[in-house]
Amino acid sequence: MWYIKAIKFFQSLLWPSHPEPAKSRKIAGYRLVFSGFSIFLIFCLIGFKTVNLAIKKTQVPIDSSVANFDKTRGTIFDQKGRILASTVPVNILYADPKHIFNPEKVASALLPFLPKLTKETLLKRLTKNSRFSELDRKLTPKRHSAILQLGLPGIYIKPATIRIYPQGNEAAHIIGAVDRDNNGIAGIEKSQNELLASGGNIYLSIDAGLQTILRAAVKSQMEKFEALGGASLILDMKTGEIIAAASLPDFDPNHFMLSTDAARFNQVTKGVYEMGSIFKVLNTAIALESGAIDLQQTIDVSKPIPVAGQLIDDYKPINGSIGVAEILVRSSNIGSAHISQMIGPQTQRQYMNQLGLLKPSSLEIIENGVPILPKNWSHITAMTVSYGYGLSVSMVQAAAAIAAAAGDGYFITPTLLKRDPNQPFKKERVFSTQTSKAVRSMMRLVVSNELGTGNKADAKGYLVGGKTGTAEKVKDKEFSRNANRVSFVATFPANDPAFLIMIMIDEPVGQKHSYNLATAGWVVAPAIKNIVNQIAPILNIQPVDILRPENSQNLMPVMKIDGEEATYATY
User: Fold this and answer.
1) Helical (H) or strand (E) element with 564
2) CB 138: neighbour CB atoms within 10 A?
3) Per-residue confidence at 45, pLDDT binned at 50, 70, 90?
4) Residue 141 burial (CB < 10 Å; 0-12/13-18/19+)?
5) Which residues, 6+ apart, have CB-to-CB distance to 479 below 8 Å?
6) How large is the average pLDDT for residues 65-88?
7) 303-331, pLDDT tens digit by residue?
8) Is residue 19 reached through a cis peptide bond, with omega within 30 degrees of 0 on the bond before it?
C-alpha cells in the first residue's frame, strides 16, 4: 500500500540503519524539525480544547432561582415624575451546598455578617439539598468586601436586582408590590405587570405630595377617635384622575409579606359599603334632573314613615314642611324617602346605572370591588337607597358619581393613570348644568349654613361644599347604632368645583372634646378643612370672595333655609 511505502521512506530518511557520516548532521536536522512540529501541533490541540471547554461553560444555564432576579423592570412614577417604584442593583449572597465540606465552620465564619439569621437557620441553608441556597440579597459594600476576604469555598456573590419603594407606605395599595422573582402581586405592579416586566415605565395620576397630606390627616382623625380604620381619596373633577388615595391600616411594599390581610385590603377600591347620607346628593340631583320635583316645592317631614315593620325617621326631628335644599342641608331621611317616591324605582335605578354604580369600576388595578345590588328594586328599595342603604359600592364609585352631580354634570370614568392633556377622554352627560348648579349650591350650604351638618369643614376662602354620611354597620345580622362608618364628601371651590375629597372613618368612638359624639360632622369634617387649607395652594386654588358677582354667578340665587334666606358667604 502507498502509505506503508511512505512510512518506510520517512523512516529511512530519519532513522537509516547505517547512516553515512556525511549525512548524520542532515538527519539530525530533520529530526529536530519533526519534533518541533509535533510539539507545536500538540499545544494547538490542547489550546483548542481549553477554549472550547470555556465557551461551553459560559453557555451552561445558571440556577433559575438566580436568573429571575436579572430581569429589568420598568419604573413607576407619580404624575410629577417622582419615583414610586424602581429596580436597583444589589448583590446576592448564596451558597452551593455541594461545594461546602464543613458547614459548621462556614456557618461560624459567616454568622457575624448575617445579623438576620440564626446559626441554626444558616446551617439549614448551608446543608440544603440544592445547588443554590440564598443567604442574603442586600449586601452592603462593607459586608460584601468582608465576606469575599473570608475565601470560603461554596460561598458565592452574584449581582442581581430588587424592587424598592422609596415612598414607603404612601399610596401602597395603589402601587402594590412584587414577589421575590420581581413579578407583580398587587396593585399597579400586578395589573400592569406585562408592561413593567418588559421595561416600560408608568406615570400614575397620584401626586406623592398630596398623598402625604391626605394620609396624615386621615391617620390623625383615626387616632383621635380610636377608629378601626379609614379610607380617603382626592379626585380631579375635570379629568377623572385620582390624585391621592389612602387606605388605613396600610403596609410598606418594601416588606409586603410582613403585612397583615387587614393592612393589605384596599378600602378605597376593593371594599364596597352602604354609603349613608352622602347618597342624598344623588337623590336630589336625580329628582331635579328627572323633573320629579322643583326647588319651590316643599315636603312634610314631621312624621316618620313606617316601612316593613321599621320607621324611617330623622336624627334630629324637623317640624312641618321644608324645601328640597333644606332636606339636603339638614340631611332629612324622611324628606329623601318622599322624594324617592316621586322619582320612582325604575328611574332611580336607571340613573344609578348611568353613574357607574351597578357594576365594578374599570379602575386600572385588580382590587376592584363588586357592588352589592338589591334583589328587587322596589319602592321600599328606592326609599332606602335615597339615603344610602340597600346598595353597596366602593368609595371610588361613589366619588365619581357625586362628582358628576356636583361638577358640570358629566360622568367621567375615574383613572389611576396620568392622562395626556392633549388626548380627549370620554365624558357622558348625566345632569344638566342647571341641575349641577343647584346641587353644588346646596352642598355649599351644608357647610356654610348654621343648620348644615358640615360646618367644621369650612376652610375660609375656599368655598367648600359637602355632605355628611353615617351608615350603621351590620353586627350579628342586625344594624348596630354603636358601630358606624362615617363619611364626608367635599368639593371646592363651590362656584367652580375642581376637586373632590372623600373620607370614610370606620367605627370612631365619641370623645370628651366631641361631647361623646362620633358623627361625620365631628370626626371627618375637621379633616376636610385641614386638607383643603394645605392642598389648595399646591393646586393653585386661590381664596374666593363670594360677595363679588363674578364669583357667585355659578351658584343659584339665595335659597331659604328654616324660613330665612341662606347665603354662601365665606368671609
Assistant:
1) strand 564-566
2) 12
3) low
4) exposed
5) 472, 473
6) 80
7) 999 988 889 998 888 999 999 999 999 99
8) no
DSSP designation for 117:
S
Question: Grid coordinates representing 563?
Answer: 324660613
Angstrom distance (rounded) from CA 367 to CA 250? 14
Residue whose C-alpha cell is 324628606: 335
What is the grid cell recorded at 177?
A: 408590590
Residue 417 burial (CB count, 10 A) = 17
Sequence-ordered list of residues with C-beta below 8 angstroms from that of 403, at least 6 positions apart, any chain = 235, 237, 240, 412, 491, 497, 500
Residue 435 has pLDDT above 90, yes or no: yes
pTM, to two decimals: 0.83
- Provide the angle, in degrees to the nearest 10, between the axes of the packed helices 333-343 and 345-354: 90
Q: Is the peptide bond before 549 cis (omega within 30 degrees of 0)?
A: no
Q: What is the pLDDT of residue 138?
A: 81
Look up residue 278 and give its three cell numbers.
Answer: 352622602
Q: Please, which residues bridge with residue 134 across strands?
A: 94
DSSP-derived 3-state class of residue 12: helix
- Rg of the chain over Cα atoms, rounded to whole angstroms, equals 37
Residue 116 grid cell? 438576620
CATH number of the domain located at residue range(s) 269-499+522-566 in this protein: 3.40.710.10
User: Nearest-CA neighbor of 248 among 218, 271, 211, 209?
Assistant: 218
- Percent of the chain residues topping a pLDDT of 70: 84
- As beta bridge partners, residue 299 has 322
Q: Output b/e per residue, 57-69; b: 16+ Cβ within 10 A.
A: eeeeeeeebeeeb
Q: Is the dihedral of CA 270, 275, 278, 279 positive or negative?
A: positive
Q: pLDDT by residue (tens digit) across 358-395?
A: 999 999 999 999 999 999 999 999 999 999 999 999 99
The CATH 3.40.710.10 portion of the chain extends over 269-499+522-566
Bridging pattern class, strands 83-95 and 155-164: antiparallel
